[in-house]
Design brief:
The chain is mostly helical.
């Protein structure tokens, strides 16, 4: 009984114990991920309901804001969720913000943003040249105010995923687990929440989508470990989503309801070139681009001799 009690205490997400076999520590970090994610999202849902009630709406009776307002509340609400993750990190893991990836290298955020812009343009351009995506010019009535607000929302949305995956999970695992296990577990935990957006899509497209998720997770993880900061990953994630959704007006991870965009770009047909209903993130071209990015990182490592993380 005492052994069972010790096991439960060891893998509990409410402490910072690391004195256990690697396999148990990996299980502990997986539990930490789901515990923090569900707790933060539950509080976030409560926050959204409070806003509705404060504005005279009863969500329990189906009284909701319009779609754009709901998206903005959700995305800016991720700022609260980030705060909850940070609070958990300080109170239970007893670690500092730099240990979560919030270092002084804030300039790397813009490096990540530039990388994100390059990767998304490099992914979309060949698909357009192949005729699987068309551009019908610029929309006539563009809501620039909403687009700017969406950019702010994407800053928080992208940062939440990165703080949780590349901050909490990646950096906790990196304390004890081998690098292959660290990257593998982190990638699986990043992919699983995105699977819900693949309902109803063709199997071939779903397979490519999962491959792309694995690749982008590896790109973000390697960037984080290489730069010893999560800022670059946050910048890449935000700019990728923003350009795809609000500049190009294309589907984002299976979401085909667009708020406002500058260019009227649309997919032609449903195939693995354009990713069909899931979007360019399920394109074989995107998979090739992300693979090339990883190869480039590997070449850079060989030239510079790698880092203390072996990446």
């Amino acid at each position: 009984m005492s052994k069972m009690r010790k096991l439960i205490k060891d893998i509990s997400p409410l402490n910072n114990r690391i004195g256990m076999p690697v396999i148990l520590y990996v299980i502990k970090v997986i539990i930490v991920f789901w515990f923090v994610k569900f707790t933060a999202e539950l509080i976030g849902e409560g926050f959204a309901m409070v806003i509705h009630f404060a504005c005279g709406k009863n969500p329990l009776k189906g009284e909701m804001f319009d779609y754009n307002t709901m998206v903005l509340i959700t995305y800016f609400g991720y700022g609260l969720l980030i705060g909850i993750v940070v609070l958990y990190w300080r109170l239970f893991q007893k670690k500092t913000l730099p240990e979560l990836g919030f270092t002084r290298s804030i300039g790397t955020y813009f490096v990540g943003a530039l990388i994100g812009a390059f990767l998304i343009v490099a992914s979309v351009t060949p698909v357009m040249l192949a005729g699987a995506i068309t551009c019908n010019g610029v929309f006539e009535n563009i809501d620039y105010g909403l687009i700017c607000l969406m950019f702010g929302g994407f800053i928080f949305q992208g940062a939440f995923e990165e703080v949780l995956c590349r901050g909490v999970v990646l950096l906790l695992l990196n304390d004890k687990a081998p690098i292959a296990v660290t990257l593998g577990v982190n990638t699986v935990l990043f992919v699983i929440p995105h699977l819900s957006g693949m309902k109803g899509i063709d199997l071939s497209i779903a397979v490519v989508a999962v491959a792309c998720l694995i690749l982008i997770s590896l790109v973000l993880s390697v960037l984080t470990l290489r730069l010893k900061s999560i800022y670059a990953a946050c910048g890449l994630h935000t700019v990728w989503n923003f350009i795809l959704y609000n500049i190009m007006g294309l589907n984002l991870s299976g979401n085909d309801i667009n708020t406002s965009a500058i260019f009227d770009m649309r997919t032609v047909g449903n195939n693995i070139l354009n990713g069909g209903d899931y979007g360019i993130e399920a394109s074989v071209i995107t998979a090739v681009v992300l693979t090339a990015a990883l190869v480039l990182m590997a070449v850079t490592k060989q030239k510079k001799g790698g880092t203390e993380y072996g990446i």
